[in-house]
């Protein structure tokens, strides 16, 4: 071991600059991984916080089928279910609170005191009782001013409550009830979208306090559940709900929350998956660069190694020396790279603070991956050079003849590479999606990279045959010189090109998948530019007023009408059924022009005509699950006065509508007592149930008109009606998509730069190894710039090789990503070839390779022929 | 009666050929060579006569196709790869034409290197290396790297490295090929003295008749066989050269 250390340190000190270049490549890779981990972690934290506010972190929830309160003793049971990470109960109830804005210090005035009457403010408040220890975890609650409650006597109130009770932060509120007095301190205030006259004031309070205040011990209105994302049994929320619903007592329902129905959870998991893959790729790139650099060094030092073998070094000592060299180079680069990566991520977070309000998140996984990956790159990248060093025979110390590489070696290398690529493709045939993913990460991804890397020399040889003539003319080289030079060292040049392939591969695959994701998924989450809403309804005349506004290019009225499913039994009595579905009435043509529905079952071609005829309805998935029905079955819907039969024509979800209703709080105002929806033609609602009022109007707006102007115009045209912008939500989604693509492109560029460290190093080593050859060129009359132009021309062909192999690898990675997104996340994607990004990637990698060669080429041009010849 | 000591170097019916292009080149055709006593010996012959191949076999750098190769009681033809490596480290010292020092190591570190590879204590190695360098006239140059030494000095460092484990046999492959005449003469004299004072067997491949005059015996090779052997007792370089050429002409 000591001998290996001795040889390793001797070798490292012999080429300090080039070893520093290799270490710099590793540093860049590890800082990249760390920065990406921290960047994605920070972005994810900010996105999750934003989603928490908008949609909430809940994956599923338990409700009473009629919206009533139920026994909360089931909570502990639910927490013990497989796959459950957290479960929390909420209790909703109304309480009356009193506030005296000016009161004698330390004294609570009696209700009948005359002065108190003048200043007393009283209001009935909708209280939402939440277990305080779950407040932050389940989201949707945040204090815009002040803080969240942390004790039973603290409350977070909405702005409406503050106005009605004249109770800013710090005020003391008194509960009006029979029984022991209870007081609460206002510690925070939050804003809610205004929904008009019937909107009620609201506050957040601990469930324990609300239980005591309302004497509702042992009750809950809803149990929210967050599933463990690492638990395979809970990876599919819909399936998990279906599997666990039977555990509930009769009367309770288990349904997925909006986080799931809109697919945002899958987007978050997609970014986690993306990070893991990106890390593996970054260190594979690093390994290739280290392997190429060290192999070149071994070739360069073959004579010295042969001498050491001649005087008695064993093969194992030489092997160990190379592995130690790799570990030292990569260990140093990896360790230094971590703080650099954290600093880079911190810089990003500072620069994009507006998009990343939650600040920097240092991800332990990223740090561990960075260091471990660097060490693995050092060992992995030095294995082949170590093996090669150990194969050196002592006689090579004395050989003076040059060895010409055989085509047989090229063919074998290419065939082995092709076999590795084919093996990775074969892994895609594994039956189990989870197995497919892990086989891909652990075996497939390395196989694909190694395979294309091994094919690089063959690709370079082919490119040299095709392009060397043209490139040689561009660099004014004697005919045949470039092709001959590349043919003499196809492995060194080819593997150098292979080291460049990773950046291009990341660029191609990320733009292929990213483009498809934005077009296919985000395009699916299509909803209107704006929404107009009034709880009490918008009459037909008022609908026309809105539609006639100059900036409204299209409108679609939507009604929300509580109905009940006739024939269902409650409490053992058939016919006794409060409204338990919400009928959403819409004009199909106008609705589909603005909003996308996901068809879970049924076909729009047959379903929409049934809707128009008034014979069919579309239902949400929960509706079918709760009632055990299917497409084609008949349900009878009524409003208490009349009832009609409808055929279930299709099962849909409207992700955009889900987001809108949740974002604007419509669900909480209207759907508390309904747990599922049916979709019906607006005209049918009017004809059958006598309702032609719209609760909401979806609008398509002139893009040139600002949302602020729209809101003012609508408020003026129809007082009491609330406008909210769908374009704002769409901007958030587009921003997220854009940010992810920008991050991917940044990673690709960094990987290209990483590759260029390797190119520069290998080209410098190659020049050193060919000094005598260049000296001969100069001695027989070549100008001082001839060797430099030759080196740059070789770099261009090397860059082309990297681009070609990288493009092929990128499309293979993109194809595999399409399969994984489909299998694991349920996100359909297309395989797209990104023409423009690929072309830009080609230009960039070729230019960077040529630039990387410039310093060494410049230094070469300044050396005298005698000096070059004397080094042979 | 004292049994005769085994020969220092013994080759019996040794054959060696190499692949070259589409055919094979026979370097040694069943060569026989014996060196019984310590001393300074020369191997001469034209290019392609098998001199270097012979030295490679003696140094454990290559294996014969057939025959016996015995160096200081080590039977080399049957040795494993690991045994040959150990033999090259401790059993023999090799001096190359191109010095073959490690450019990033100092003179003393170059001399110590075989001992480091053998896992010996550094203090012991350093003392031995210093002593060897002093005896070869390099006491003040032990911390210089090869690029700071002249050709003759580098070759003396290589000799010191070869002597580290005091092997009974030293092999020198045209050690003065890259030196001027004065340095060459100094080196030959040094090797002659080492052979005498340390009672070593030094076998040198050389083109130079002047070098052979320092030797005890000359072996003339031609076409992979020993064409002639003669003692160099009082013969000068000119006569030695004539003798060698006559031998080669007679061999056809």
Q: How would you describe the overall organization of this protein?
A:
The complex is a heterodimer of chains A (872) and B (252). Chain A is an alpha+beta fold and 872 residues long. Residues 569-577 and 667-675 of chain A have low confidence and may be disordered. Chain A is 58% helix and 17% strand. Chain A has 30 helices and 24 strands. In chain A, helix 2 packs antiparallel against helix 10 (264-300), helix 10 (264-300) packs parallel to helix 26 (726-769) and helix 12 packs antiparallel against helix 13 (364-391). Chain A is elongated and about 105 Å long. With 252 residues, chain B is an alpha/beta fold. Chain B has a single domain (37-64, 80-251), classed as Rossmann fold. Chain B has eight helices and ten strands. Chain B has a six-stranded mixed β-sheet with strand order 6-7-8-3-9-10, sandwiched between helices. A four-stranded antiparallel β-sheet of chain B has the order 2-1-4-5. In chain B, helix 3 crosses helix 4 (122-135) and helix 3 packs parallel to helix 5 (151-162). The termini of chain B are far apart.
**Structural class designation of chain A:** alpha+beta
Percent of residues in beta strands of chain B: 25-35%
Estimate the helix proportion of chain B, in percent. Answer: 25-40%
Mean pLDDT rating of chain A: 78
Query: How many DSSP H or I helices of chain A?
Result: 30
Helix run count of chain B: 8
Poorly predicted tracts of residues of chain A? 569-577, 667-675
Largest β sheet strand count, sense and barrel closure of chain B: 6 strands, mixed
**Rg on CA atoms of chain A, Å:** 35 Å
* Largest beta sheet: strand ordering of chain A: 3-4-9-6-8-7
How would you write the strand order of the largest sheet of chain B?
A: 6-7-8-3-9-10
Strand content of chain A: 15-25%
Oligomerization status of the protein chains: heterodimer
User: CATH superfamily of chain B, called what?
Assistant: P-loop containing nucleotide triphosphate hydrolases
Distance between the termini of chain A: 33 Å
At the fold tier of CATH, the topology name of chain B is Rossmann fold
What is the SS-derived class of chain B? alpha/beta
Q: What is the CATH C-level name of chain B?
A: Alpha Beta
Question: How many beta-strand elements of chain A?
Answer: 24
What's the main sheet of chain A like? 6 strands, mixed, barrel
